[in-house]
Amino acid sequence: MRTASNRQLTLLRKLNRKKYRVQEQLFIVEGGRAVRQVAENQSVRIKTLFFDKTRGYQREEEWKKRAKKVEGVILDEAHFAEVSDTDTPQGVLALCHMPEEASIESISRNEGIVVALDAVQDPGNVGTIIRTASWFGARALLSGKGTVDLFHPKVVRSTAGATGTIPHLNGGLATLLQALEEDSWEVLLLNKGARSVPLASLKSRRKKTVLVVGNEGHGIDNRLMTDNRHQVEISSPSPQPPVESLNAAIATSIALYHLSN
C-alpha cells in the first residue's frame, strides 16, 4: 500500500462539508465495524480504504483482502486524526461513492412503508432512523427540507453501516407526499396533538404507508397536516408520563415495529 497523497488528504478534509460531498458525490464511512458492514452489504461502492499506520489494520488478513479489491492507502497517525470525525479514531475509514437518489416513480411502484423526515435536524436521530428503517425493511426514505444531510459524518456513523441500504430521495415533502397519495399511498403523521389517535388503535392499514416524522422541537409542519392524513401518536401506559414526548428516533422505531406487525 502506498502513502496518501496531498490531493487525497485535501479531499478527505473537504468532505466534512456538505457542499463538497455533493460536488464530489463522495462521503466517508469510519470505523472497522461500519466499514465492514458497508462492504458486506454492498449497498454503496467503496472507492478507497484509508488506514492509520499506527493501528495496524492494514496488516490483518481481513483488511489485506479488502484492500486488494479497492485502493488501499496509509495515513500517519496525525493525518488520520485530522481527517477523522471522531475524538478517538478507530484506524480505518472508507471513501465511498454516494448512491444515486431514487425517483418518486420508482418508490411509488413498491408496497410497504416509506419513512419521511420533516426537518429532522439531529444527526444521531437521523442515523438511527435510517438504521431502524433498514432493519424493518422500509422501502424508501424521503428527506424533506431542513433535514440534516443523510451523508453527514455523524449521520453515517449513527447508521452503523446501514447507509445506502434503502433508496432515498431529497425534496419538498408537500409535493412528494401528494405524488404518493395520488398512487394510493396512505400518509400517517407521527404527531401528538388534539387530533391525534393512538397508533395502536389503527387495526388495518394499507399496503402502501408513509410515516412522517417531524422536527425534534417543532414537530411536523402544519402545512403537511391535511384533512385526509391521519395524525397518530404513541400513547404512554402512564396517565401522567413524567416527560412531554419521546425522542424522534425512538418514536420512529416503535411506530415501525407496530406498522411492520
Automatic annotation (TrEMBL):
Pfam families reported in the protein's UniProt record: MRM3-like_sub_bind (PF22435), SpoU_methylase (PF00588)
Keyword annotations from UniProtKB, A to Z: Methyltransferase, Transferase
The keyword Nucleotide-binding is annotated on this UniProt entry: no
Keyword Metal-binding: no
Domain RNA 2-O ribose methyltransferase substrate binding per the UniProt entry, residue ranges: 28-102
GO MF annotation terms: methyltransferase activity
UniProt GO BP: methylation
InterPro entries (alphabetical): Alpha/beta_knot_MTases, MRM3-like_sub_bind, Ribosomal_eL30-like_sf, rRNA_Methyltransferase, SpoU_MeTrfase, SpoU_subst-bd, tRNA_m1G_MTases_N
Protein family membership: Belongs to the class IV-like SAM-binding methyltransferase superfamily. RNA methyltransferase TrmH family.
PANTHER family for this protein: RRNA METHYLTRANSFERASE 3 (PTHR43191), RRNA METHYLTRANSFERASE 3, MITOCHONDRIAL (PTHR43191:SF2)
Protein name according to UniProt: RNA methyltransferase
Species this protein is from: Fodinibius salsisoli
